[in-house]
Design goal:
With 566 residues, the protein is α+β, with helices and mostly antiparallel strands. 48% of the residues lie in helices and 23% in strands. Helix 1 packs antiparallel against helix 4, helix 9 (326-372) packs antiparallel against helix 10 (378-404) and helix 12 (453-470) packs antiparallel against helix 13.
Length: 566
């Protein structure tokens, strides 16, 4: 029994300590809050006094120098603006000497200006033991070149001093202080009576803070993901659109959030909306799709979706993960193209050598037989045809060997603008049945590059000749130069644009393949050789074309110095 009583006494004692500690803590907290509240009110009243002084100063200054004709008028102006709560209005010079005042007792007195040239706020006590806030503002007239020189000369380099009587402000501050102390005493009593409720509120705050932290963490996680994340509710309204999604679709978040997904983010698979497939047909989507952004940029996206379920298992929307694999596809296509070119190069080189030897024998024998017949003999004419065809085949073999065995680059430092200008002049001099206009635009200054001038010129000629062939009778070819950032590298872009017949989308993947051509003339090696030359310069070639709407070829070359490439 004694032990139980002893335990109860200890418990009560510990409980008393806890309550005392809690009350002390509450008292300190409320005292701290009261102090800051009073400081805030004091600062607010202080700011009101400063604003009042500045308003009077600005009002006097707004009259302008041309209104103030002499000191008497200025004195009347100062008297006009003096009102209850304003102890005096002075005009002082830069040394602090009072030149004019509404209080004659202040004439020829001196005021210390602590910060010349700017507004000063100085609190003092006047002869009646009243607290005064002195607002000292320099005169600054915008009409200093007006016809009134006297007003400007008199007020030049002067200050306007407004004396604000602070007693009414301090009286109001004391009233506020009493009210705040009374309010916080009442709050303190209520807090003592509601300790349990405070503890519960604190617990709720901890829960809310935890949820908010989790939400912030989730938001940061979504924003730092390398994949686009889009979520829509059961009504197909966009709810989530992270930063990567903005980059992929080239849309801002406020242009998408809260809107119907199918209208702002049209993504289809086999002409069916992915939102319809997911929300209505409950299908999980794992597919690659092609889209065009607002800037007409084609992108290939890897799309994966999953459905969201509500508390009762109902459909609550869907989440779509999107990865931009356009660059990966381009690199894969470029690697495959290089493999094809390498394989075709080796094959072509071997075939060319095997064909060249028999052709030499055929040409020699045909030339020998041709000389054995008279000029009028029909057989000699047939043999000459054979010689011409053999020469044509030799020309083709030379092109194949040039393609399959690129020579070492002869690097030189030259201006691209000059090379393009020279090239356009050369093409304009050439005879052609077509009416083609050449235009040259550049957004950069005279750009120099280290490259093989002749080979680069050959590559551009091959591309431009291809554009000329694509134009039927009349058209234009635009060549432009610009600087672009590609994979964090500054590249020189040479763009060649024509308004010819264009290339079918099914032919675009093979446009740089050797011997691929959809024209009646030519061997289909021009673009392949051009691609090979640009690649030797550590550059790349991109082509965009649409049937019937022309073609755009972009050549990207490194801006820095080129290394010698075998």
């Amino acid at each position: 029994m004694i032990k139980i009583k002893k335990f109860k006494n200890i418990f009560r004692k510990n409980n008393s300590y806890f309550i005392f500690t809690l009350i002390l803590l509450l008292f300190i907290i409320l005292g701290y809050i009261s102090f800051h509240e009073l400081q805030r009110e004091k600062n607010y009243l202080w700011e009101l006094a400063r604003v009042e002084g500045l308003n009077i100063a600005f009002s006097i200054q707004t009259l302008g120098s041309e209104f103030i004709l002499n000191r008497d008028i200025l004195r009347e102006v100062l008297d006009l603006f003096q009102k209850e709560g304003i102890s005096f209005i002075d005009v002082i010079d830069r040394n602090g000497n009072i030149r004019l005042s509404t209080n004659e007792n202040r004439r020829d007195s001196n005021v210390e200006i602590t910060r010349p040239g700017v507004v000063n706020y100085i609190q003092t006590i006047d002869s009646d033991n009243k607290r005064i806030l002195q607002v000292i503002k320099p005169f600054d007239f915008e009409d200093r070149f007006s016809s009134d020189l006297f007003g400007y000369l008199f007020l030049h380099d002067k200050y306007l001093l407004i004396g604000i009587n602070m007693e009414s402000y301090y009286l109001r501050y004391n009233q506020i202080k009493q009210r705040i102390i009374l309010n916080y005493l009442i709050i303190f009593i209520l807090l003592i009576l509601g300790v349990y409720m405070i503890i519960r509120v604190q617990e709720n705050l901890v829960v809310k803070r935890t949820l908010r932290n989790m939400k912030d963490y989730t938001t940061k996680l979504l924003e730092t993901m390398d994949s686009g994340v889009i979520s829509v509710d059961e009504r197909n309204i966009v709810k989530t659109f992270n930063k990567k999604s903005e980059e992929i679709f080239q849309l801002k978040r406020n242009e998408v959030i809260g809107k119907i997904a199918g209208n702002v983010l049209p993504i289809t698979i086999d002409n069916q909306s992915i939102y319809q497939l997911g929300l209505q047909k409950k299908k999980k989507i794992e597919s690659e799709v092609e889209i065009y952004t607002n800037s007409k940029t084609k992108k290939i996206l890897e799309v994966n979706s999953s459905l969201l379920s509500g508390e009762k298992g109902q459909n609550a929307g869907m989440v779509i993960l999107i990865r931009d694999i356009s660059r990966i596809k381009d690199l894969a296509e470029e690697i495959n193209r290089n493999k094809r070119l390498a394989s075709l190069g080796k094959l072509s080189s071997g075939i060319a050598h095997e064909i060249r030897n028999p052709l030499s024998s055929i040409r020699g024998l045909a030339q020998f037989l041709s000389q054995s017949f008279d000029k009028e003999d029909v057989r000699r004419t047939d043999l000459n045809i054979i010689l011409k065809e053999v020469d044509r085949l030799n020309q083709l073999i030379n092109q194949i060997l040039d393609f399959s065995r690129p020579k070492k680059l002869a690097l030189s430092h030259f201006s691209i603008q000059e090379m393009v200008t020279e090239l356009i002049h050369l093409l304009q001099l050439g005879k052609s049945e077509k009416n083609i206009t050449f235009k040259f635009h550049t957004n950069i200054r005279n750009q120099f590059i280290d490259a093989d001038r002749n080979k680069l010129k050959q590559a551009m000629i091959n591309i431009i000749l291809n554009s000329i062939q694509a134009i039927e009778k009349k058209g234009q070819i635009i060549i432009s130069l610009d600087l672009k950032i590609i994979d964090d590298k500054e590249m020189i872009q040479i763009m060649i644009k024509d308004d010819g017949t264009g290339v079918d989308s099914s032919d675009l993947p093979h446009i740089f393949d050797p011997f691929f051509t959809n024209k009646d003339k030519g061997y289909g090696l021009g673009l392949s050789i051009a691609y090979s030359i640009v690649e030797m310069h550590q550059g790349t070639v991109k082509i965009d074309s649409e049937k019937g709407k022309g073609t755009i070829v972009r050549i990207f070359l490194p801006e820095g110095r080129q290394k010698e490439i075998e």
